[in-house]
Design brief:
By secondary structure, this protein is mainly α. The protein has two domains: 168 residues, no CATH class; 177 residues, I/LWEQ domain (Up-down Bundle), CATH 1.20.1410. It has twelve helices and no strands. The protein is globular, with a radius of gyration of 23 Å.
Length: 390
């Protein structure tokens, strides 16, 4: 028989103390994984907006809107992830505040279509950020109260975040020049962590940070597969045969599979040896993640061209895929570079260069996929090691 729950001891009250950066077996929590699910919707919205903009040949406006929308998503995720790596008591207030942040992220996702319509951060997206920021500032104030050693750091975070959020709200009332104001505020957002951490660095956990970025990369790659799948289904519904779509389908799968292989080919936690190196590594992930999301849009555009639903031509659609693939490969080869991999480092730039040639082939999506698969094969042959006998 189970014990009477009324006799069970009350759960201990937890303080938001800094977690040890050497804590063993530190992995993502169920709450963090739940938080990530919100970004499945948000990334899909951003990728879909870019897909339709490129297909309609509104490339410049589409890219600007995508860059802004994805920055908003990525920055919200980074803020949560960094805080959780340093402080995560998993008590009731912490859980409730994270759920509030998730609600704000959903509001931001709802505002992404308006960003593509106006090329500006609209009231819905800003309102979502207000909800997230109120929760995040409260988290940092809790940390300031519980961690005297890093009190100044936590207060700087809270002050910087609150000030910038007020500035984002004020930007909505500008009659003109919002693009310039947004650029200034983005620079301010990036500068806040560097300013705050100078007081006393927060104790980020290398394994945890590396795993969290890997999980977000998985989400984005999954969205790329979803975007291509939805486009293929739309093509089938319009009467196209699978045989006609087969080269693009095969190319899509090979592209995303190869991107996954290359990202997870080597561990990343041992690269995070200092605070500033970790910050650089984490910030550079904007290009990794944004390009991976743009790949999904590029794959969908290529399906639209095959099914005669896009105004852009075959070469243009090929570049819609090849350019983000090239950025992804160059970004990865930069942030994952280390001495023991010097023999294969050149494959990153080679992969990027070769991908940019594929739009001039009859089937660009298939060409990019086959090229990346060949790069993965060569890389594995170059790094193959004999299996030790047991």
């Amino acid at each position: 028989m189970s014990q009477d729950p009324r006799l069970e001891p009350a759960a201990p009250v937890r303080r938001m103390v800094a977690r040890s950066p050497h804590e063993p077996h530190r992995i993502a929590t169920p709450l963090e994984l739940f938080f990530d699910l919100v970004f499945v919707i948000a990334v899909a919205q951003a990728s879909a907006g870019l897909h339709h903009a490129v297909a309609e040949v509104h490339i410049g406006a589409g890219l600007a809107s995508f860059a802004l929308a994805f920055f908003a998503l990525w920055w919200a995720w980074v803020n949560f992830t960094w805080f959780a790596s340093a402080y995560d008591p998993d008590d009731v207030p912490y859980r409730l505040l994270v759920l509030v942040q998730m609600t704000g992220a959903l509001i931001v996702a709802a505002g992404i279509p308006a960003v593509f319509e106006t090329q500006q951060a609209g009231p819905i997206a800003v309102a979502g950020y207000v909800v997230m920021r109120l929760a995040l500032v409260t988290q940092w104030l809790r940390a300031a109260n519980a961690d005297p050693l890093r009190k100044t750091t936590a207060i700087r975070y809270a002050l910087g975040i609150a000030t910038l959020q007020a500035a984002w709200i004020g930007m909505l009332f500008l009659p003109a020049g919002r693009e310039v104001a947004a650029a200034v505020l983005i620079a301010g957002e990036i500068a806040v962590p560097a300013w705050a951490e100078r007081a006393a660095p927060t104790p980020w956990h290398p394994h945890h940070i590396a795993e969290r970025h890997g999980l977000f990369t998985l989400i984005v790659l999954g969205e790329s597969i979803l975007a291509a799948t939805v486009a293929v289904q739309a093509g089938r519904d319009s009467g196209e045969t699978l045989l006609h779509l087969a080269p693009t389908i095969v190319g899509s799968l090979l592209t995303v599979f190869s991107m996954w292989w290359i990202y997870f080919d080597r561990p990343a936690h041992d690269l995070l040896t200092s605070f500033w190196r970790t910050f650089t590594w984490a910030y550079a992930h904007y290009f990794v993640l944004a390009s991976a999301a743009a790949v999904g849009a590029g794959l969908a555009v290529n399906v639209d061209v095959v099914t005669h639903k896009a105004h852009i031509g075959t070469v243009g659609a090929g570049f819609a895929l090849a350019v983000p693939v090239a950025i992804y490969m160059l970004a990865l080869s930069t942030i994952h570079r280390r001495p023991e991999y010097h023999r294969t480092w050149f494959l990153g730039p080679v992969a990027a260069f070769g991908a940019l040639l594929m739009p001039f082939t009859p089937a660009p999506a298939l060409g990019v996929g086959l090229w990346l698969a060949a790069i993965v094969t060569v890389k594995n042959l170059m790094t193959a090691r004999p299996v030790a006998a047991h």
